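Hey all, quick one. A colleague (J.T.) asked me to put the L4RZE5RM job into the tracker so the inputs and the structure tokens live in one place instead of scattered across chat threads. No bug as far as I know, just bookkeeping. Sequence used:
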Amino acid sequence: MSETLLRLRAELIAVGQFFHARGWVPATSSNFSARLGAEEMLITSSGQHKGRLDEQGFLRADLHGNALDVGKRPSAETGLHTVMYRRDPALGCVLHTHSVNATVLSMRLEQVVFEGYEVQKAFPGVTTHESRVVIPVFPNSQDIPALAAVVDAYLDANPQTVGYLIRGHGLYTWGATVADTQRHIEALEFLFECVYRQMLLDR
Ligand SMILES: CSCCC(=O)C(=O)COP(=O)(O)O
Ligand SMILES: [Zn+2]
């Protein structure tokens, strides 16, 4: 087993514990992956509790979603990971979470827009709070290849996108490393909470 795999697996286990402590990965929801090479990734197997992951909770898969470790089934949402790695060879991690704020906002809005928040600078290419960060909301679907195609087309047209919501479901974001991607989740969750509270104040 490679040093890289061991390191990335340990990082993803720690991410799961961190997110679980904040209530962002309830029940067996959410899935995590990290790139192992040009054609391969490490991904959580389907049905794992992401706050209690151990070494058995992962498998290697190719970038078309085929399991490379026998007897293990990758996440049901593997296609939403592979589409990202195929788009960008520099991408090293994809994280998906199911927080309350992300889920509630996705039921109310067509897109979530952040404007004027300093934390927007946590995202790549954003250098000022005087920016507009748009998080699109896509309809939920059990047809993951179809959903992945919708994501792919949106990102072709909007390459600066840092994450997206699936209605009534959760959040996907990505980054060069596990640490970068964890930071994106944290920043997005902070900003979702701000938008949610602002909506309450505006009522
Ligand atoms: C209990 S949550 C339903 C499935 C889901 O949305 C999810 O994120 C987890 O699916 P997986 O197959 O990756 O465990
Ligand atoms: Zn999910």
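Adding what we noticed when we looked at it: Helices lie at 3-21, 78-87, 100-108, 144-157, 178-202. Residues 27-31, 44, 46-48, 75-77, 96 surround L4RZE5RM (ligand 1) (CB under 6 Å).
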